[in-house]
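Long-time lurker, first post. I've been practising inverse folding by hand and with some scripts of my own, and I keep getting stuck on stretches where the structure tokens seem ambiguous. Below is the full token string for one chain I'm working on. Before anyone asks, I'm not after the true native sequence, just a reasonable design that respects the backbone. If someone could post their per-position residues I'd love to compare against what I wrote down in my notebook.
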């Protein structure tokens, strides 16, 4: 019997993706602009798709920086596959939630499924910041707690066992077509391994929570007082409790049942007083009380779309944010989380001197390419043309390490040209026109269009069928620089070639929006990951 997704699940998936983006790692898929404009038609077509016979494509894999010398593999799915996977997870979201501990407790704090608020899929007030405050209340409210064990799982997303996840999906949603499609998609994405989830997307977050549902239950059944945010565990010990005992139980549960292991380097035991002090430091941030209050409002807001109020912004402007950033980056073992918070503060406060600081230190900042690119975009929107002379520096950074070695750094630097934050000439573009990866080529097509490179699209438009499907929409979009008659006549020839789900809708959309396509694709989804 055919399985088809409900219109409600598809609508919620598209709303969520258009609000939060398809991933918190890559620049958002440019096709999200198409989904936003044509959501009703897209839902109408996709709800007719039989997922029992539809075969999803793979995912683009890219290396991303994780710490100063640490890396991880991240994934970006094609646009339609992103919608379908998320909608399938939404279909069984309530069933996943029933396997988890009660949301009233702290045991499994993160990513509680709740699709009752438009555009959101998670229970509100359950961010990492909220988790820290909840722990403060727990530890300060119980004098019985004498020690706290801190630990996390090594390479959690990358090491989730696919066969265990299959079994958990069968238990959570037995015989459900959505669960079957989820298994098929992950199997295609992770074709070379029998473990790992695609990193960076909302669907994977809920599936990762399902992967730890048995561990949550085992800890509770064993009488261990614990709270968890994704793969971070905090275990609360009373007098006489042995840290070794609870850690060995958790390690055994993860190793034998889930094929996962604890991160020994991040495992430690703290006294009650030490941990309360740590929590206060994490929730106050940076250096003194006044500065802490300003960044308190910032970090509380970081996962939501509400803009800080005027008082918050003024408080941030009073801080030496550029000094904080310089100090943090200069550390041998810098804190990525803190650096992201400071960049977020800079993006909101937009202090005087930020443009000059970026221009003067651009080569040192490229390792934080995503944060730098988003900050530069915000600054350029307020002061158009402030980065007009930076193209050569960006191109130079793209063509040498670390960007030439790490795809995600290169991708975010290219995004400066995609979004026209930094203008580029056709002559400058020639220095990087042969970048090799599929993701590079997607962005290069949009940049070519911005430089009005009609010759490239005219020479290659007959070979669009030889372009990988992941790249085709970008090529078709980039070709809008061609004269209207030539472009529209060419689009008519593509229908037999470009014929996957929603492809014909996409062709109608680019035709109707020819003069707006590049500006629409170059605009980012709102920068507030859930």
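-- Answer (accepted) --
I ran through it position by position. Result:
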């Amino acid at each position: 019997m055919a399985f088809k997704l409900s219109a409600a699940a598809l609508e919620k998936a598209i709303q969520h993706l258009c609000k939060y983006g398809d991933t918190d790692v890559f620049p958002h898929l440019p096709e999200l602009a198409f989904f936003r404009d044509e959501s009703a038609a897209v839902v109408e077509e996709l709800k007719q798709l039989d997922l029992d016979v539809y075969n999803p494509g793979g995912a683009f894999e890219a290396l991303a920086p994780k710490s100063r010398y640490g890396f991880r593999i991240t994934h970006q799915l094609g646009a339609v596959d992103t919608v379908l996977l998320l909608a399938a997870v939404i279909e069984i979201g309530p069933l996943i939630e029933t396997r988890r501990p009660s949301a009233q407790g702290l045991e499994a704090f993160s990513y509680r499924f709740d699709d009752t608020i438009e555009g959101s899929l998670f229970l509100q007030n359950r961010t990492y910041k909220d988790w820290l405050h909840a722990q403060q209340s727990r530890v300060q409210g119980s004098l019985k707690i004498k020690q706290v064990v801190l630990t996390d799982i090594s390479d959690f997303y990358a090491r989730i066992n696919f066969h265990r996840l299959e079994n958990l999906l069968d238990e959570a949603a037995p015989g459900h077509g959505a669960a079957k499609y989820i298994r098929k998609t992950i199997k295609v994405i992770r074709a070379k391994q029998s473990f790992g989830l695609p990193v960076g997307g909302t669907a994977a977050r809920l599936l990762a929570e399902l992967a730890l549902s048995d561990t949550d239950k085992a800890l509770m059944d064993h009488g261990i007082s614990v709270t968890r945010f994704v793969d971070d565990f905090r275990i609360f010990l009373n007098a006489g409790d042995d840290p070794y005992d609870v850690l060995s139980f958790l390690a055994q549960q993860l190793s034998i049942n889930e094929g996962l292991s604890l991160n020994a380097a991040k495992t430690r035991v703290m006294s009650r007083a030490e941990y309360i002090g740590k929590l206060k430091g994490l929730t106050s941030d940076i250096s003194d009380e006044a500065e802490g209050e300003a960044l308190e409002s910032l970090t509380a807001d970081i996962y939501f779309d509400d803009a800080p109020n005027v008082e918050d912004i003024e408080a941030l402007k009073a801080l030496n944010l550029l000094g904080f950033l310089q100090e943090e980056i200069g550390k041998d073992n810098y804190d990525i989380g803190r650096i992201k918070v400071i960049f977020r503060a800079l993006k909101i406060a937009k202090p005087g001197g930020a443009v000059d600081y970026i221009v003067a230190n651009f080569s040192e900042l490229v390792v934080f390419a995503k944060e730098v690119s988003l900050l530069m975009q915000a600054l350029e929107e307020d002061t158009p043309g402030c980065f007009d002379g930076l193209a050569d520096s960006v191109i130079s950074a793209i063509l040498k390490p670390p960007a030439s070695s790490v795809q995600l750094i290169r991708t975010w630097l290219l995004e400066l040209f995609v979004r026209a934050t930094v203008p580029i000439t056709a002559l400058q573009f020639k220095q990087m026109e042969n970048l090799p990866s599929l993701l590079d080529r997607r962005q290069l097509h949009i940049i070519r269009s911005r430089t009005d490179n009609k010759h490239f699209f005219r020479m290659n438009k007959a070979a669009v069928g030889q372009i990988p499907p992941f790249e085709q929409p970008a090529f078709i979009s980039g070709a809008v620089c061609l004269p209207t008659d030539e472009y529209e006549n060419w689009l008519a020839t593509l229908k037999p070639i470009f014929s996957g789900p929603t492809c014909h809708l996409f062709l109608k959309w680019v035709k109707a929006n020819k003069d707006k396509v590049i500006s629409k694709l170059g605009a980012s989804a709102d920068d507030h990951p859930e």
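A couple of notes from the structure itself: Residues 243-258 form the longest helix (16 residues). The longest strand covers residues 145-152. Happy to go over any region you disagree with.
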